[in-house]
Amino acid sequence: MGSEILLREDSDGVCYLTLNRLDAYNALSMEMMQTLSAELDKITEDISVRVVVVRGGGKGFCAGHDLKQMLGEGQEAYYQATFDTCSELMQRIVNLPVPVIAQVHGVATAAGCQLVASCDLAVSADNARFATPGVNIGLFCSTPMVALTRAVAPKHAMELLLLGDLISADRAAEMGLVNWVVAADELEGYVATVAGKIASKSRKTLSIGKQAFYKQSEQTLAEAYSSCARVMTDNMLTDDAQEGIDAFITKRKPNWSHR
Question: What job does the chain carry out (predicted)?
């Protein structure tokens, strides 16, 4: 890759993206966000990738925006560009045709917590901590709020946003911010198992399902059923659906073409 601030490793359909700004707790500088966005764009066209894992190198997952960088700029246009770039990055994750798993250790705060909330699944070490602490420094976490309110119940989101306190991994799981909490020394293996299960599926099917999931969540009940009935009809017509059903009936392992 062109930059060491983001590392990529591919293995059996799983793409691991590691935030690698170790001296800044993997803070989302403009360069980091642009680099991560560019890599996600490549993955969109990479048929070999069926699931993405986003993780942090060093002591933790991600401390959010690089406040030192932002304070040094001190200009409205730069602030707007920073938050726009971050918003576009989070939407790229949601719109990516394959699932994205957050692998969390250390802390995930502010935009780092937003990154976790934007991923489709999240696995956390039991000693990880989460927060949207902007309110403590006079900067309400308004863009992280967008992801949070789509991942957890409204009162849980407000709890994080108004108090600004660090919460435990177990509390994050209670809220629905993360799916699984595991011992720190088991985190990597657990994520690999989850990712491997997803990677064994048809990329075409995963893409259809993920897109439909987010679309129907914004629709009325009637609209959602109508939309998803059409999605399932189109899904049934794909090569992989025909292959998968035949494999099930004949009791054999499916051979996916990802079409």
Answer: May play a role in fatty acid biosynthesis and insulin sensitivity.
CA 4 to chain centroid, in Å, comes to 21
Q: 104, 123 in Cβ contact below 8 A?
A: yes
Residue that is written with structure tokens 């017509």 in the block: 237
Q: How far is CA 103 from CA 2, 40, 214, 219, 243, in A?
A: 23, 17, 21, 30, 32
Query: Is 258 domain-assigned?
Result: no
Count up the domains in the chain and report the number.
2
The tokens of 139 are what?
A: 């900067």
- Please tell me whether residues 128 and 60 are part of one structural domain: yes
- In this structure, the answer to whether residues 108 and 163 fall within a common structural domain is yes
Rounded to 5°, angle at Cα 203 from 219 and 190 = 95
Give the C-alpha distances (Å, rounded to integers) separating 166 from 22, 24, 128, 131. Answer: 21, 19, 10, 5
167 with 226, same domain: the answer is: no
pLDDT tens column, 171-207: 999 999 999 999 999 999 999 999 999 999 999 999 9
pTM: 0.95
Whose tokens are 């993405």? That residue is 52
